Amino acid sequence: MTTRLLDGRDVASHLRRELRHRVERLSGDDPEAAPQLAILRSGSSEASALYASSLERAARSVGVVPVVLAEESGPMIETIDRLNADERVAGIVVAQPLSDPELGRRLVERIDPAKDVDGATPANAGWLARGEPAFVPATALAVIAILEAYDIPVAGQRAVVIGRSAVVGRPVASLLLARDATVVICHRATRNLARETRRAELLVVAAGSPGLVRSEMVNASAVVVDCGINATPEGIVGDVHHATVAPVVRAISPVPGGIGPVTPMMVLRQTVESAERTASGKTTPGDAG
Ligand code: NAD
Q1: Do the strands 235-237 and 230-232 form a parallel or antiparallel pair, or are they unpaired?
Q2: Model confidence over 15-49: pLDDT tens digits?
Q3: In the chain, N or C terminus with fewer CB closer than 10 Å?
C-alpha cells in the first residue's frame, strides 16, 4: 500500500495563486485599494510574534497589506474601535497570547465579527456551533482545505478529533459535522483513546502532545491530519508519530509541511472574503462554515 502524503505546502501555493487573483480583482490598478489585514501582537511573547510574522509574510504574498500593531504601542481597545470603523481594513487578528491574557480576551470580544478573519469572537464561534455561516479559526479551516484539495470524502465518514480547544478541536469537529461526518471528540479524560482512534476513517489530531498517536492506534484505511506543532530537541514534530504511522495508513499530513503552511492562507482567504463582501455591499457574516 502506498500512503498518500497530504502536502500542505502544495495546497498553500495553489491557494496563494487563487487569492492573489482575487486581490488583484479587488484593487484594480489602485494599490491604495488593496485590502488591509490588521495584526495585533505582543512583543514579549515569542508565539505571538511568530504567528504575526507568518501572517505578515502570507499577506504580502497575496497582495493584502499587513498592518502590524504592537501591544506595547498604545491603548488597544481604542485601536480595535478605529480598525472596526476603517473601511480599508478587511480583517483583524489578535496574535495570542498577549502579555495580559484578560486584555487579549477583551480585545477579541471588541472585534467586529464581520472582520474577525481568524474566527476568534464569541459571535463567530456561536454561529459555527449552530451550523450557520461564520468566520472560522484558521487552523480548523486548514484541515478542511487539505481534505478538499485531495478530494478526501467527509460526508458519512467516521471522524475522530483528538482535542477540544476553542482554536482547533471544537471548530474542526463543527466543520466536519457540518459536512455530514459522524464525529467523536476525544480529550484528556477519554478512556481508552486507542479504541476510539482505531475506528476512525478520518483522524484529526490537535492535542499538543508529541508522538501521541502511534501505529497501533490507527487502521489501514485511515486519513490522518496532524495539527500538532511541538518544539522538541529533534526539531518541530506533530502529535502523530509520523515515522511509524505514515507507512500503515491511507493518507497523512506531515509536520512540518502539513497544516502549518495552510493556516495563514485561511486567514487571508477569510480576509479576501470580507473585502469582497464590503466591495459588493453585502453585510452578512463569513461564509466559510
Ligand atoms: P490545547 O492545549 O488548548 O488543547 C489540547 C487538547 O488536546 C485538549 O482538549 C486536551 O484535552 C487534548 N489532549 C491533550 N493531551 C491529550 C491526550 N494525551 N489524550 C487525549 N487528548 C489530549 O492545544 P491547542 O491550542 O488546541 O493546540 C493543539 C496542537 O495544535 C498544539 O500542538 C498546537 O501547537 C497546534 N496548533 C497548530 C496550529 C497550526 O497552525 N498548525 C494552530 C494552533 C495550534
Answers
A1: antiparallel
A2: 999 999 999 999 988 878 999 999 999 878 888 88
A3: N
Q: Which residues line ligand 1 (CB under 6 A)?
A: 139, 162-165, 167-169, 186-188, 190, 193, 206-209, 212, 227-230, 259-260, 263
Specify the residue with its C-alpha closest to ligand 1, atom 5.
Answer: 207
- pTM here? 0.96
Cell of 221: 484505511
Q: Indicate which residue's Cα is closest to atom 17 of ligand 1.
A: 188
162 Cα–ligand 1 center, Å: 8
Burial of 16 (0-12, 13-18, 19+ CB in 10 A): middle
Give, for ligand 1, the residue of 11, 168, 195, 217 to mutate: max count of ligand atoms closer than 8 Å to Cβ: 168
Dist. CA 102–CA 105, nearest whole Å: 5
Instruction: Name the CA dihedral angle for 192, 189, 211, 232, rounded to a multiple of 10 degrees.
Output: -160
Q: Cα of 228 to ligand 1 centre, how many Å?
A: 7
| DSSP state for residue 2 in the 8-state scheme | P
Give the C-alpha distances (Å, rounded to integers) separating 21 from 18, 149, 248, 266: 5, 18, 39, 15
Residue-wise pLDDT for 189-240, tens only, equals: 999 999 999 999 999 999 999 999 999 999 999 999 999 999 999 999 999 9
pLDDT, position 285? 56
Q: Where do the domains of the chain lie, and which CATH numbers do they carry?
A: 27-112 (3.40.50.10860), 138-260 (3.40.50.720)
User: Rounded CA gap, 210 and 19, in Å?
Assistant: 33
One-letter identity of residue 180: D
Residues 6+ apart with CB under 8 A from 72: 42, 43, 44
Ligand 1 centroid from CA 69, angstroms: 27
Task: Specify the ligand 1 atom closest to the Cα of 138.
Answer: 40
